[in-house]
Amino acid sequence: MWEFDDVQAFLKAASLHCWYSAFYLAVTTGMRRGQILGLRWKDVDLEKGILYVRQTLKDGKQFLTGAKTASGVSPMRRWRS
Question: Which is an annotated Pfam family here (predicted)?
Answer without folding.
Answer: Phage_integrase
